[in-house]
């Protein structure tokens, strides 16, 4: 879907995030994930926490191919890009990917660094469960 519209063939990640993604790969909770799934999870965490971090240096080779993105993935990617900028951004595929890569950079930092700081929860599952409950509570307070 994406490549015919001029989107890059690969999605990149920050070089400094290689070890963070490797950490997630070793977690039993994510054992059936592919690189695209790790990225989309990191993107969601970065966006939910409004943490968009500039990438100083990208890892070489690309993280995954855009052909693995599903229509739902594309909807999320384009929605975040439009919300962050405007609908005009869709005419600039490189800018769309800059936005999502920066949010994923922030998100993977949260997923791994915060978890390592709060390892007292005992496991990734418990940490993630607490995170989702806190997020749900925050949404409830906003209503």
Describe the structure.
- This protein is mainly alpha-helical.
- It has one domain (3-142).
- The chain is 57% helix and 3% strand.
- The chain has five helices and two strands, in the order E-H-H-E-H-H-H.
- The chain has helices at 18-26, 35-48, 71-84, 93-117, 124-142, and strands at 10-11, 64-65.
- It has a two-stranded antiparallel sheet with strand order 1-2.
- Helix 2 packs across helix 4.
- It is globular and about 40 Å long.
- The mean pLDDT is 85.
Tally of DSSP β-strands: 2
The total count of helices amounts to 5
Order of strands side by side in the largest beta sheet?
Answer: 1-2
The percentage helix is 55-70%
User: Biggest β-sheet: count, sense, barrel?
Assistant: 2 strands, antiparallel
Distance from N terminus to C terminus (CA atoms, Å) equals 37 Å
Low-confidence stretches: none
The residue-averaged pLDDT reads 85
Broad shape? globular
How much of the sequence lies in strands comes to: under 5%
* Radius of gyration computed on alpha carbons: 15 Å
The succession of helices and strands, N to C, reads EHHEHHH
Helix vs. strand class: mainly alpha
Number of domains: 1
């Amino acid at each position: 879907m994406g490549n015919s519209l001029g989107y890059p063939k690969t999605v990149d990640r920050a070089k400094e995030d290689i070890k963070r993604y490797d950490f997630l790969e070793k977690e039993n909770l994510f054992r059936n994930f592919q690189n695209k799934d790790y990225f989309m999870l990191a993107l969601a965490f970065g966006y939910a926490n409004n943490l968009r971090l500039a990438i100083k240096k990208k890892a070489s080779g690309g993280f995954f191919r855009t052909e693995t993105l599903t229509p739902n993935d594309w909807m999320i990617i384009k929605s975040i890009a439009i919300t962050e900028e405007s609908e005009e951004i869709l005419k600039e595929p490189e800018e769309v990917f800059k936005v999502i890569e920066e949010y994923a950079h922030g998100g993977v930092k949260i997923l791994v660094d915060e978890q390592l700081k709060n390892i007292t929860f005992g496991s990734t599952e418990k940490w993630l469960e607490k995170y989702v409950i806190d997020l749900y509570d925050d949404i409830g307070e906003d209503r």
